Amino acid sequence: MKVGLLQFNVRSGDRKANVETVTRYMAEAREQCPDVLVLPEMWTTGYDLVNLAALADDGEPFGALLAGWAKETGATIVGGSSPVGVDGRYANTLYAYTPEGERILSYEKAHLFGLMGEDRYLSAGSAAGNFGIGEVPCGAVICYDLRFPEWIRKTVLAGCEILFIPAQWPLSRLDHWRILLQARAIENQCYVIACNRTGRDEQGVAFAGHSMVIDPWGVLAVEAGEEEGWIWAEIDRDKVERVRRKMTVFADRRVDLY
Ligand SMILES: NC(=O)CCC(=O)C(=O)O
Questions:
Q1: Residue 87, pLDDT score
Q2: If you placed Cys at 105, which of 96, 147, 220, 229 could pair as Cys (CB 3.0 to 4.6 Å)?
Q3: Which residues pair with 106 in a beta bridge?
Q4: DSSP 14
Q5: Is the minimum distance from the CB of 177 to ligand 1 under 6 angstroms?
Q6: Where is the CN hydrolase domain (predicted)?
Q7: What DSSP line would sit under 176-237, residue for residue?
Q8: Is 62 a residue whose pLDDT tops 90?
Q9: Are 206 and 171 in contact (CB under 8 A)?
Q10: pLDDT exceeding 70 applies to what percent of the chain?
Q11: Residue 155 and residue 150: Cα distance in Å, rounded?
């Protein structure tokens, strides 16, 4: 499975510019014959939460754009997230689409990040983000969800060999980003595919980039720097099976204790 992660400088409040950027990169991705493409968190609008009512959509055209790119590239798209509003309730929502343009996941971020104002403007989701890419069981969480191992373990116990994590994670906590991603991969013995944004927002906050793919043994398969663009990795599903067989963490859990 060939996976591409796109990190770019998301323009706050400028949906048109962000869509243009991704459209340009999708044309580039097609040349790579990808299986899966991943986008960052809140890539359509950034964190312009004060203007949420004007910027959010009801799932369209966000969904139609992703479905179109999935068909155009022939890849499953794990489409990062966007503010989606229904009945005056807004959620940080992740969609995924098959290459045929069928939606296979709608996941709402479960843990709202107060330091970026999410708790004041957004509603939290409460359903786990399990889905499948063909026969491969996958899961997804969004950014701050990464700090909640219980939530991710629940997703993995429901069946997950590849965990996707779109993010807008600041450069000032790059060490947390890397350590937590590796820990989630090691403890859950699954691939972690984490796609972060780059650049600075309008308040001058710098974002880390450093999108990465980590294998089920915790080894970095690929890691971006801070520059914009695609990074690519090959996922070997057998590796998950080998690691889980070698070290029987799931069978060894003390479910009588916790
Ligand atoms: N967008 C987010 O959820 C950011 C989370 C974050 O920065 C953290 O340190 O956690």
A1: 86
A2: 96
A3: 95
A4: -
A5: no
A6: 1-237
A7: HHHHHHHHHHHHHTSEEEEE--BSB-TT-PBB----EEE-TTS-EEEE--SSSEEEEEE--H
A8: yes
A9: yes
A10: 100
A11: 9
Q: Which two tokens stand for residue 9?
A: 């400088």
Q: How many CB atoms lie within 10 A of CB 131?
A: 23
Mean pLDDT of 65-69: 98
**What is d(CA 58, CA 86) in angstroms, rounded to the nearest whole number?**
6
**Where are the domains positioned within the chain?**
2-246
In 3D space, the residue among 151, 226, 152 whose CA is nearest the CA of residue 196 turns out to be 226
Separation of alpha carbons 170 and 172, rounded Å: 5
Average pLDDT in the 186-196 region?
A: 98
User: Sorting pLDDT into bands at 50, 70 and 90, what band is 222?
Assistant: very high
The residue type at 244: R
Q: For the chain, how far is it from start to end, CA to CA, in angstroms? A: 35
Task: Name the residue at shortest CA distance from atom 1 of ligand 1.
Answer: 168
- Known catalytic residue: 41? yes
Atom of ligand 1 nearest to the CA of 167: 1
Catalytic pick from 108, 118, 143, 161?
143
- Which pLDDT score is estimated for 113? 98
Please report, as a single letter, which amino acid is at residue 238: D
- For the domain 2-246, what is the CATH code? 3.60.110.10
Residue 88: its pLDDT value, please? Answer: 86
Query: Is 135 a residue of the active site?
Result: no
Closest CA to 6 of 17, 23, 14: 23
DSSP code at position 94:
E
pTM of the model: 0.98
Pairing of strands 162-166, 2-7: unpaired
Q: What are the φ and ψ backbone dihedral angles of 106, each rounded to 5 degrees?
A: -135, 110
pLDDT over 90 for what percent of the chain?
98
